[in-house]
Amino acid sequence: MEIWGYSTHIDIYQCDPYIIRSQADIIRYVNELCLLIEMKKFGSCILQNFGNDERVQGYTFIQMIETSLISGHLVECTDEGHIDIFSCKKYDSQVAHEFTAHHFRAQKSKFQVLER
Fold this sequence. Notes:
Elements: E1 6-13, H1 17-20, H2 23-36, E2 46-50, E3 58-65, E4 68-75, E5 80-87, H3 93-103, E6 108-115
Antiparallel strand pairs: 1-5, 1-6, 2-3, 3-4, 4-5
């Protein structure tokens, strides 16, 4: 079976509380990540802070790219984040993971790659 795309799931923990609550830092992350992994953005980043339950309250972002989508949710009460990159264009998942952990100043992180 032919591979149609690549999906990277990045989990970051014990992040800098200021950065995961900053609209400007989140948008800068998305813009720099797209440049780093050579993805062409399709439209602007959609960014919304929501959640009636404090266990999930925080920013969610969605950036469409020409080859699919980058999305994530940043949880404020635990200072963690969960980011997904899906693209039919190959990219370096390790680089995306390291950049993400560094940008949000995560004390711990992990990632998983799936071929679809």
